[in-house]
Amino acid sequence: MKRQVxxxxxxxxxxxxxxELSEIIRCSPASHPCAPRRGLSAxxxxxxxxxxxxxxxxxxxxDLVDRQSVTRFVSPSGRTVYQVVGSSGKLYTCYAxxxxxxxxxxxxxxxxxxxxxxxxxxxxIYLSRATxxxxxxxxxxxxxxxxxxxxxx
Amino acid sequence: MAGAGAVGPRPRPLLLLGPTGxxxxxxxxxxxxxxxxxxxxxxxxxxAPRPLERLPGGKAAGAGAIQRxxxxxxxxxxxxxxxxxxxxxxxxxxxxxxxxDGLEEYLNxxxxxxxxxxxxxxxxxxxNYFSQKRSHLSVGCQLIxxxxxxxxAGEEAEHFSAIEHYFPAHxxxxxxxxxxxxxxxxxxxxxxxxxxLQPGTKDQEWMVKFDAQGSMTISPLPCKNETENxxxxxxxxxxxxxxATVPSSQS
Lengths: 153, 251
Known about the structure:
The structure holds two protein chains of two kinds. Chain A is an alpha+beta fold. Helix content of chain A is 45%, strand content 13%. Chain A has a four-stranded mixed β-sheet. Chain B has a ten-stranded mixed β-sheet, sandwiched between helices.
């Protein structure tokens, strides 16, 4: 599925396909109210649906959720930003309202080739929010500004 | 993104594209003035590499509109990033419009397509943040960015391809020769055809006329297949019939 297909339908300004992706995640197996009771296996068709849309990112993203790798930082100004600990332990910055991740896969596969909607870190944020597995941390306004900026090389 | 919370209507981010001399800065400034005139709570942030050479006066400026435009001139890509990232700390009131002129000049100092995308995503995330802060009001925060047509290959094209998807609406400016309407006879110095493309709505076109006194007139062109004027959804800046004394364009 091409990114543009979803982007075209998106009525909000949050970047490619934000609303559609939120809907898909809301209907995903992990966020289903019955999931804890019935186990994930009861929702395999839904997992397949998730895989159909997000491809091979789904399993690594669920793994990141399991490890509680997603942290949402909030400052007194109300500004938020996410950080995800990648599988190698590296920290990636993701913006709260539009699709951006500082990982190389986002640049290559989402921005350049356009063959994926999101990277596994962005997907992990959606899934973490949906399952309540997202860590929350308060920081100062100044610290939040620093988190929004690219890492200095 | 998930958990962003309910916000008011979010105007679509708009990318204004045109070649050198197509009046990008002039139109952008006009949009900022319109944006600043909508309601008294409007606050426009105008970002550019350098000040416009001449600001409009008289009726075009409106009584208080220009005072509601906050001009900032970050000199480099790094300064721009720093400024945008810290707006939540530094601005006392939420912006209703963020305008960036001359994106291509900033991208010249940008190391990679990823960093270019990060700048645009940061602008978008910031305008969404202001929309959320303004959710008690009827309109959110509009983002409008102008840039010169990128080349077809090389670094410019790579940067453009990384950022274009962040803008659902594109306004293309095409200089017109004016042969058909007799440019000289009407005292006009420049004619620009503006073509708005946004998914889910009909394309729209306007003719932008500049005369020797620096006045700008914008008039809608009929759709290719229809003659009536259709309105486009979203809160793009109004570019209906208008006269304005305009600043010298830097583009």
